[in-house]
Structure formats: C-alpha cells, structure tokens
Design a protein that fits this description.
By secondary structure, the protein is mainly α. Helix content is about 80%, strand content about 0%. It has a single domain, classed as MFS general substrate transporter like domains (Growth Hormone, Chain: A), CATH 1.20.1250.
C-alpha cells in the first residue's frame, strides 16, 4: 500500500495531467475551431479568455463547493464539467459552441485549491516544494501529450472525432479517481451547505482580496503569479497559431513545438522545485526566474527564422523557465498561508493569476490586430514580466522580512 503522501500525489497528478491535456487541446485546435466558427485565427485568444474566465469563476466562488463535497469529489465534478464543455465544442453550433470553453475552465478550476488541500496535509515538510512541483508538472505533461497527439488525431479523424476522443479520456479519469476518495476525502460534507448559491455570489471576489491579507508576502506573491500567468496564457493561446501563420508550419509541426515546450516545463517544474527546497528562498527564486523567463521568450521570437533545431531549443528554454514557475509559486503560497486557509489562499491567489490569463490573451489579440505582428505582442508580454520581476527585486530589497518563513 502506498504511503499517504504518495497516494495524494498520484491522485492529484493524474487529474492535473488529464485536465491540462483537455484544456491545451483547445488552442492546438485553434485554426480549425476558428475556421468552423467563421472567425480569424487570432480569435482563439477570446476562447482562451473564456476558458480562463471559467477557472476564475470556480476560484472565486467554488470554495464552499470544495468544503461540501471534499477535494477528490470536487475534482471529479470538475472533470465532468470539462467533458460537458468539450461536448459543446464538438457541436457545429457556431459561436454558441465556443461557450464550452467556459465549462472547461470551470472544470479546470478545482485543481489548484483541491490539490493544495490534499498535499499540504500529506506532504512531508522538507520535501513539500518538490512534491507540489511534481504535481504541477502534470500541467506540462498533459500539454506535451496534447501537443504530440491532438494534431495527428485532427488530421486523421477530423475536429469533432478528436474532441470526442478527449471527452472519453476525461470521463475515464473520473472513474480512476474514485478509489482515492475514501482515503483522501475525510473532511467531505463538513458544512457549507450553501455552495450552490455561492457559485453566483459576486461578493466572493471581495472575500478573496481580504484573504490575501493573511500574510504580508501574499500580495507580492499574488501579483508576481499574475504576471507569470499573463506570459504563460499568451504562450499557450498563440504559439501554435503563430507558428502556423507566421512561419508556415503545419499543425503537426506546431504541435511538436508545443510538446517540446511543455516537456521542458515538466522537467523545469520538478528541478526548480528541488532547487527552491535547497535554497530555502522561493520568493527571491521566483523574482529571478521572471527576468530569465522574459529573456527566454524574447530569444524564442527572434530565433524564429534560425532553423528547426534553434527553434526547438528556444522553445525548450521557454518551457523550462516561463512555464516552469507554477509549482514553486503554489508551494510558497501554501507555506505562508495559515494552515486553515491553505485552499482559500491558493484559490484567491490563483484567481488573480487567471484574471491575468483573461486579460493577457485579450490584450495580445488586440495588439496583433493593431500591429499586425505576433512578434510585437509576444515581446510586449515578455516586457511586462521582466519589468515586474525587476520591480519585485527592488521591493524585496526594501522589505527583506517578506522572505522570512511564517512564524
């Protein structure tokens, strides 16, 4: 029988990987999805924004649902919502079908707070950041699997059949998660009977702001995460379309570039988590990583015409840095949060991160429309991350107490 921490890691990693696989399939199918809806290729940014809006909806209002059902059951409900959203996208309903992205986002939302709630209880403290980072490595692992498989499926089976295949994988995962429920959902049903009403309570956003005052490091961590989220969302939403439209890559080649990026991110999340555990200074680590990530993105965009190997190498560097930040960030949020508020704090901070994931692709699409250049938009996204990293470094120099562990 597996130790409790290993069972917790296996359950959360499986769900995280499949959720990522399903959600990243959407931008990979961007060109045919937008063509079927009668929209321009860069309009995939609006679909990405809808997906992020669904995530924000859960993060703002889904806390009572998590408390009522328990973490594993909430993850299963999220997977069912993703399957429903994918079903809507598989239907030839024009713009209406794109609303399925909202349901996919809502179903993705439980992964961070539910996973944090499970792992903070089970993970040994001296390996906590590494364990959180391994769990978060499910995001790029799912993305890499999507990058390698979605385009070939779309070419051989067509758009609708590809979406149905992803639906089958998502529904199968709800069954795989069931055996973990009795072991890991010991606190299910503990109050919060009004979870249904809470899903439509606009006051939840204000509650999220108040929760982030629980520790002086949380506002900076939250803002830094939002800046990283803007960069990551723009990469995930547009890199495949950029490669197809600007570099005349096939959908399969664009998928391979995304797979390289996601695979490097998977390695990066684990290695960076291990390094952060050894450094004992995750906040300063994240600030440095923000600047390095921005430089890596700029290198990727300027290396577009340098050949396949250079392009893949730069994509790997971007994946390692600009998409490899999340595990360290979530672990640091969980570390500084009061123990009773871990899921609430990670939900609140992730909510603001995903608000960045909404605004980033919308601004990116608008900038492409205005400038006619994906490169300009990518460089602008990298510029905001570099500027924020440098500003955070100056802030830390003036307030070094923020780096100290919570008492």
């Amino acid at each position: 029988m597996l130790p409790l921490w290993a069972s917790a890691l296996v359950a959360t990693l499986i769900v995280q990987t499949v959720s990522s696989f399903a959600s990243i399939a959407i931008p990979l199918l961007g060109p045919p999805l937008m063509a079927r809806a009668g929209l321009s290729p860069e309009s995939i940014g609006f679909v990405s924004a809808l997906l992020s809006a669904g995530i924000c909806w859960f993060l703002a209002c889904g806390g009572p649902m998590l408390g009522h059902f328990g973490a594993i059951r909430t993850l299963q409900i999220g997977l069912a919502c993703m399957a429903l959203g994918l079903f809507l996208l598989s239907q030839p309903l024009g713009l209406v079908s794109l609303l399925g992205a909202l349901a996919i986002g809502f179903g993705t939302g439980p992964n961070t707070p539910a996973g944090s709630q499970i792992l903070i209880r089970a993970a040994p403290p001296r390996h906590r950041t590494l364990i959180f980072s391994i769990k978060q490595a499910g995001v790029p692992l799912g993305g890499a699997l999507a990058g390698l498989s979605i385009a070939p499926l779309a070419v051989s089976l067509g758009l609708s059949a590809t979406l149905w295949t992803v639906i089958a994988v998502v529904l199968a995962t709800t069954l795989v998660a069931q055996p973990f429920r009795r072991l890991l959902d010991s606190g299910r049903g503990a109050g919060r009977p009004g979870w249904g009403r809470a899903l439509f309570a606009p006051a939840a956003l204000l509650r999220s702001v108040r929760i982030l005052a629980a520790h002086p490091a949380l506002p900076l961590l939250t803002a830094l995460g939002a800046s990283f989220s803007v960069m990551q969302a723009c990469l995930m939403a547009f890199i495949a379309t950029y490669m197809v439209t600007d570099h005349h890559a096939s959908l399969a080649e664009a998928g391979r570039i995304v797979a390289v990026m996601q695979g490097a991110s998977m390695v990066g999340r684990v290695m960076l988590g291990w390094i952060a555990d050894r450094m004992g200074n995750a906040l300063r680590h994240l600030v440095l990583q923000a600047v390095i990530s921005a430089l890596a993105v700029a290198l990727l965009i300027t290396a577009g015409g340098a050949g396949t190997w250079a392009l893949h190498g730069c994509a790997a560097l971007v994946g390692f840095t600009a998409i490899g930040w999340n595990g360290v960030h979530i672990a640091e949020l969980a570390r500084v949060a009061p123990s009773a508020l871990v899921s609430d704090v990670t939900s609140a901070a992730s909510l603001f991160g995903f608000l960045g994931s909404i605004c980033g692709p919308l601004a990116f699409a608008a900038l492409v429309g205005w400038s006619g250049s994906y490169a300009v938009a990518f460089l602008a996204a990298a510029g905001q991350l570099a500027a924020f990293g440098l500003a955070s470094a100056l802030f830390l120099r003036r307030m070094p107490a923020l780096e100290k562990p919570a008492e």
